[in-house]
Amino acid sequence: MKERIVSGMRSTGKLHLGHYLGVIDNWVKLQNDFESYFFVADWHALTTKYDKTETLKQDVKDVVIDWLASGIDPEVSTIYVQSLIPEIAELNVYLSMVTPQNWVERDPTLKDMAKILRNKEGDAQISYGLMGYPVLMSADIMALNAQNVPVGIDQVAHIEITRDIARRFNNIYKTEFFNEPKPLLNKCSLICGLDGNKMGKSFNNDIKISDDEETTTKKIMTAITDTNRIRKDDKGNPENCLVAYKYWEIFGTKEEKAQVCSGCTTASVGCAQCKRALAEVINKKFAPIREKRRYYEAHPEIVEEIIRTGSDRARCEIQKTVNEVRNIIGMY
Ligand code: TRP
Ligand code: SF4
């Protein structure tokens, strides 16, 4: 029997290349080797955006469309929406009882989130729900009793807490019911944003999976290069090219990279020309994904059907787990 994987992404709307390279590409490669569950974490989105819900429905759809376009196969993987499965919230209640408060207060990822939010929007924005972020995430994973969780490196601290909660639950109720899930990291290098910082929607430095070729090219032309190379006939150094060459490293073939290096160090190729070529390579890679995306965008009823079917299937499995948990604890 195949082991299970489960992973989720917050419903932040259209996804960028950081999501694609850091997470989705990994899911696509793993989906056949595991019994795979992928969900949109719309409750997790609410932990920070409970007062900005106008686009929530569309955001959920956009995330699913990006997954489908990127190669998550709904015939192979179960795709679902967290909030369509109330049993996850029920499990969250049980897990919250066995989780010591200082475990969530120590969570480094949560601390960072809270700090950013506090600076931007003030203390009141940090809700009780946000403090429960790692427990809810544990409920997501444990609801399917998954053995593995394919995530980006930034989520590993959360999964450590999940392992601790699973172990503590098992100890308290003298059971071996829950697995201690392990993170499955992928090898791909992290892609930075156009300005050299972490790629993110809110930093305005991202390239979206859904961007068209023209937009992509325009954005790539703004990518940071070797800042010592001021004029075209200055010789450049790819090692000091903080964004454009980093992208070449991710997307270029060996030959292309060698060509870029020689063009750069001899000043026979200018940065603009170099970046136009880079944009072409990236556009070529994403052309089939973007075409598939346009298909799903034109057929919202198909997307809706995939979400409903997947959520029914996931709910069925999750109900089994939560019924067992009720029995183990001794609920009425
Ligand atoms: N916290 C994850 C993120 O921000 C999303 C997430 C929610 C998740 N629940 C999960 C990931 C369970 C893996 C497993 O991307
Ligand atoms: Fe970077 Fe290319 Fe310019 Fe060299 S030529 S600095 S690799 S953008």
Strand content: 5-15%
The CATH topology assignment of the largest domain is: Rossmann fold
Q: Main beta sheet: strand number and arrangement?
A: 3 strands, parallel
> How many helical stretches?
14
Distance between the termini: 33 Å
Write the layout of secondary structure elements.
Blueprint: E1 4-10, H1 17-30, E2 35-41, H2 42-49, H3 56-70, E3 78-81, H4 86-98, H5 101-106, H6 108-121, H7 128-131, H8 133-142, E4 148-150, H9 156-172, E5 182-184, H10 213-221, H11 244-251, H12 254-265, H13 271-298, H14 300-329
Parallel strand pairs: 1-2, 2-3, 4-5
Helix pairs in contact: 3-13, 4-8, 4-14, 8-9, 10-13, 11-13
The chain binds tryptophan and iron/sulfur cluster (SF4).
Could you please describe the fold and organization of this structure?
The chain is mostly helical. The protein has 2 domains: 4-192 and 299-329, 3-Layer(aba) Sandwich (Rossmann fold), CATH 3.40.50; 211-292, Tyrosyl-Transfer RNA Synthetase, CATH 1.10.240. It has helices at residues 17-30, 42-49, 56-70, 86-98, 101-106, 108-121, 128-131, 133-142, 156-172, 213-221, 244-251, 254-265, 271-298, 300-329; strands spanning 4-10, 35-41, 78-81, 148-150, 182-184. The strands form 2 sheets. It has a 3-stranded parallel beta sheet with strand order 1-2-3. Helix 8 (133-142) packs across helix 9. The model has no long low-confidence stretch (mean pLDDT 95).
